[in-house]
Structure formats: structure tokens, C-alpha cells
Design goal:
This protein has six helices and ten strands, in the order E-E-H-E-E-H-E-E-E-H-H-E-E-E-H-H. The protein is α+β, with helices and mostly antiparallel strands. The chain has one domain: SH3 type barrels (Roll), CATH 2.30.30. The strands form three sheets. Strands 6-5-4-3-7 form a five-stranded antiparallel β-sheet, covered by helices on one side. Helix 4 packs across helix 5. Pfam families: PWWP (PF00855).
């Protein structure tokens, strides 16, 4: 990478200060941009263009192939790829999972397990053995955690989403709910409206996916896409959305 991101280094774990920098790296994917901060959370600030805010947008219609669905073509392409298997990080977690993480006196905070391949070199150098990288919602920060320090997002939503009414926390929860909803829609995403959907990224096994009614260009692994399709159950999706609205 040219013009590698420069970070001012502190301690990089779930109980110390955080690492930050002043300028964005031009070489990082547009989806993620890092910025400076310095409070007592063990995190690295990150400004994300993929904050998953719903936005209605015009979509050009394309005809569906008569001989073979474009969705099947994507599935066959993914199946032909090598070394894209799911890695169990321990405690049932995988890269991309939505989670809650706890840092010092802060409440449990919503985030997602972040693929290190998308992070800057200095963030990767801060890695500790047995720890995973978590990108938090709301305050746009990173933190290195042991899997045992994290808990699943949806299963603990009713309890953890009510911890405090601070604006930053509420914003974080809203962004997390937005991403959870987007991932529900991921199960219905296809190439029928946009033949260029599911474009491969520079990280093997990851694709840029447009989900209808959301900002375009979210990055998802083939595992996340398959999981979204396999787990899509309309009544459960509706129940979760209702629960989210009742808690707000």
C-alpha cells in the first residue's frame, strides 16, 4: 500500500487507551475510513461510509436470464473459489458477526467482528494473539477483544439496548439495528436488477453488495451472504423488527 496510514500508538486491548490518527488513508476501501480520537476506550476511531442508513434510490430494471438465473451464476462463482471457508473464532463467533463488547466503565456497546484484511497496517500490527477486531457503531471505533469478552447482538438486544439514553449510545444502537435489518435484506439481494451486483473486492471471498433501499456497496463475505439466505424466515424477521421499534 502507498501512503500507509500513520497511527499514534498507545495500548491496544480491551482495557486500555485507544489508537488514533488524523488523516484517512487513500488506500483503504471507500467503505471504511479511520479518524482520530483519544478517550479511555481501547479502540481505534473509524469513519465508515457503510453506516447502512436506509435511503430510497432509483433502480434501473434489467431482464432476468431465461437460461440461468444470475443468482445461480454468483453461487457457482463462489463455489469455484478456494480458501473462503468460515473460520470459527471461538465461542461460536465468526468474522462479520454482530456483537456487544464491553470496555472499562462504558456500557456494553454494539459492533461487529471486523475482517483484519480491511484494516490499516498499523491496526493489524496492534493485534494480540487470540484477540479479534471489533468495529463499533455510533462512535466509529475499533477494539481488540478476546472472543469470550463478546456476546451475540440479537440474543441480548432487549437487555443491552436499554442500558443508557445517551445520544451516542442511542445512535450506536440505531446504526446496529439498521445493519441487522440490512443483513436481513441481504438474503434477498440478487443480480436481477443490477448485473454488476456482487462485485468481488480486493479481499478474497468478499463482495460489494447492493441491498435494495440501503446505501450501495456494503462489503460481505460469501459466508454471510449464504447465511442470510439460509436463515431468512419472514415471521422471525418481522418479530425482530417489531422488537427493535418497541425498544426505541
Amino acid at each position: 500500500m502507498s501512503d500507509a496510514s500513520q497511527f499514534q500508538s498507545h495500548h491496544h486491548n480491551s482495557s486500555d487507551a485507544r489508537v488514533s490518527r488524523n488523516e484517512n488513508s487513500e488506500d483503504e476501501p471507500e467503505e471504511f475510513r479511520v479518524r482520530v480520537s483519544s478517550d479511555d476506550k481501547s479502540t481505534v476511531d473509524i469513519e465508515s461510509e457503510n453506516e447502512h442508513r436506509p435511503r430510497k434510490r432509483d433502480t434501473e430494471k434489467f431482464p432476468v436470464s431465461d437460461s440461468k438465473s444470475l443468482l445461480m451464476e454468483f453461487d457457482e462463482y463462489v463455489a469455484s473459489e478456494r480458501n473462503t471457508g468460515v473460520t470459527d473464532l471461538g465461542y461460536g463467533f465468526e468474522v462479520g458477526d454482530l456483537v456487544w463488547g464491553k470496555v472499562k466503565s462504558h456500557p456494553w456497546w454494539p459492533g461487529h467482528i471486523y475482517n483484519e484484511a480491511f484494516a490499516s497496517a498499523s491496526v493489524r500490527r496492534a493485534r494480540r494473539e487470540g484477540h479479534v477486531l471489533v468495529a463499533f457503531f455510533g462512535d466509529s471505533s475499533y477494539g481488540w477483544f478476546e472472543p469470550e469478552e463478546l456476546i451475540p447482538f440479537e440474543e441480548n438486544f432487549a437487555e443491552k439496548s436499554q442500558q443508557t439514553y445517551s445520544r451516542t449510545f442511542i445512535k450506536a444502537v440505531e446504526e446496529a439495528v439498521d445493519e441487522a435489518s440490512r443483513r436481513r435484506g441481504l438474503g434477498l439481494a440478487c443480480k436481477c436488477r443490477n448485473p454488476n451486483n456482487f462485485q468481488a473486492t480486493r479481499v478474497k471471498g468478499y463482495y460489494s453488495v447492493d441491498v435494495l433501499d440501503y446505501e450501495p456497496g456494503g462489503f460481505y463475505s460469501d459466508s454471510q451472504i449464504r447465511k442470510a439466505r439460509d436463515s431468512f424466515i419472514p415471521i422471525e424477521t418481522l418479530d425482530f423488527v417489531r422488537e427493535c421499534w418497541q425498544c426505541e
